[in-house]
């Protein structure tokens, strides 16, 4: 990967599109947003693969991320809680949680930051009407 640094932005031309990084979220993605997105994205991709292998059908999945940062000058990410909401019919919440725990253990981004960042993940099954 190659990054071009200017006074206003940091950019990288990636296969999918150009990535723009900035300290001002009106100008690009802030670094902490990219970190949290990497954790959520990796977890979701691994989780989807596990649910697919287990033949768990669902209609929709969303993730809410709660981020806690230090109050010192560094303002580092200390904790990230990812709350998965999975909606569908006849979902087994215990099975969804166990599969999520397996996903977390196999997500390279989560495992790259543990134990520096406390990453927790929970799931909520939302039953859809038939």
Automatic annotation (TrEMBL):
Record-linked InterPro entries: KH_dom-like_a/b (IPR015946), OsmC/Ohr_fam (IPR003718), OsmC/Ohrsf (IPR036102)
Alphabetical list of Pfam families matching this protein: OsmC
Gene3D superfamilies: 3.30.300.20
Protein name, as recorded: OsmC-like protein
Organism name: Alkalibacillus flavidus
